[in-house]
Amino acid sequence: MVEFRVEYLSFVSLPVHPAERAGYRAAAEVVGRLRGAGHLAYMVGGGVRDLVLGLPPKDFDIVTSSPPEETQRLFRRSIPVGVQFGVVTVVHRGRTFEVATFRAEGDYRDGRRPGWVNFADLEADLARRDFTINGLVLDPEEERILDFCGGLADLRRGVVRTIGEPGVRFAEDALRMLRAVRFAARFGFRLDRAARRAIVAAAQSIGRVAAERIWQELEAMWSHPTRSAALVLLKETGLLEIVVPHVGALASGRGPWGPWARTVRRVRALPPDAPNEVAWACLFADALCQKEPATDQWDEDGPYDPSAVREAEIIMADLRAPRKLSRTVGELLSRRWTWHRAHEMRYGSLARLLRRDPEGHLLLFWRADAASFGRAEAARPLEDIAARLRARGQMQDGPNQPPITGDDLLARGLVAGPRFQELLAEAEREWLEGRLATREEVNLWLSKAKSAL
């Protein structure tokens, strides 16, 4: 049983973040309409937490004593997506708000959905929620925050603590263990001691959660600047070996230069706004392509590991990652060792790889990987090449493009095929190296290409 003691905080001292003033006003109007009809109504959850932390809220959830049918009647636009659980999505001022009737739940037989739902009061509704920092209630009319479960104190202390017994909360929905890690990493908090022990004890149960739900949590962790803290905490709680076993297996490697330590350093070396493709490639680099391809396995543009593409697609498909993301991660991994052997490669090959990556994913990946080996300076020559390409307008989306196209080869009587593509790639390298600058040089090269066939 959860025991409540109410603490109040004046909302006047918490100005709404400029990025979400319109959203707050719209949510307050929804609360006001519910109250005007004689119902209790409050804002609750992560949006209130973020306001207290001075962060722009992602959204505002609303709880009310209004039955779902009455809520639908009060608002012209509503969607009964979870009406069986008392949840109605209200559309107001172009924004959507989840409006839920106060409810109590129990008997989580499938580890996710409650076996029964009863409409209840505010305290019973808060008692079923996951963490104290997500159990804060905002009364926009009184301009104060109500804290029934110690969330304000936990925000001040920097602690993620469950509402009620952690073992019970995690048994109801094992995904809450991943959410605990995500919140702790994102806010720089620590896990409450009892919550940490419960996660370690129940880590294996995360395996019964649907892969799609796990992916959503992992993606939320991985798209945030605190991704390295989340990675370490996943390892410490035993969750990593279950949700990303290929990376979890690296944890047995010891020493500051072992694959696990390198993985943490690589992820930590990423800029805060690193694209997800690069972040995932950094996570899997030592798990999927530790071994550098032998020189006789290189393709025309340098070290290339086609198996990394296949393995990444298989593993990320198991994680339920989008196919396009999986493919991009695999392509990045396949070129992992380029930065390490760049001094042995021709300029045209390096430039060709970089110009075909205008988003800069390869360069970010190589820079982080080099840093994981304590050799951040090894990526600087590649950065110089990319800067030169941009300055000359030679990036794939730039104004300067190779002077030889497929149409030029066809006009010379060459037939499309594998060799056709090889010739175009070689022409691109020659152009990048400055040997196809004039029309005479282009014509001479085309003549030689035709005679060589």
Give an overview of the whole structure.
This protein is an alpha+beta fold and 453 residues long. The chain folds into 3 domains: 7-157, Beta Polymerase, domain 2, CATH 3.30.460.10; 254-392, no CATH class; 406-452, no CATH class. The chain is 50% helix and 11% strand. The chain is built from 23 helices and 12 strands. It has helices spanning 21-36, 46-53, 68-74, 122-127, 151-157, 166-172, 175-187, 193-202, 211-222, 227-237, 240-243, 245-248, 259-268, 276-288, 306-318, 323-334, 338-341, 347-355, 361-372, 380-392, 406-411, 418-432, 439-452; strands at residues 7-10, 41-44, 61-64, 78-82, 87-92, 95-101, 103-106, 116-119, 136-139, 144-147, 159-160, 190-191. The strands form 3 sheets. It has an 8-stranded mixed β-sheet. A two-stranded antiparallel sheet has the order 7-8. It has a two-stranded parallel ribbon with strand order 11-12. β5 (87-92) and β6 form a beta hairpin.
Q: List unreliable stretches of 5+ residues.
A: none
Straight-line distance between termini: 82 Å
CATH superfamily of the largest domain: Beta Polymerase, domain 2
User: Would you count the extended β strands for me?
Assistant: 12
- Briefly note the CATH topology name of the largest domain: Beta Polymerase, domain 2
What percent of the residues sit in helical stretches (DSSP H or I)? 40-55%
Our estimate of the beta-strand percent is 5-15%
Which architecture of the largest domain would the CATH scheme give at its second level?
2-Layer Sandwich
Number of helices: 23
Strand arrangement within the widest β-sheet reads 1-10-9-2-3-6-5-4
Q: What's the CATH class label of the largest domain?
A: Alpha Beta
Total number of distinct structural domains: 3
Rounded mean pLDDT score = 90
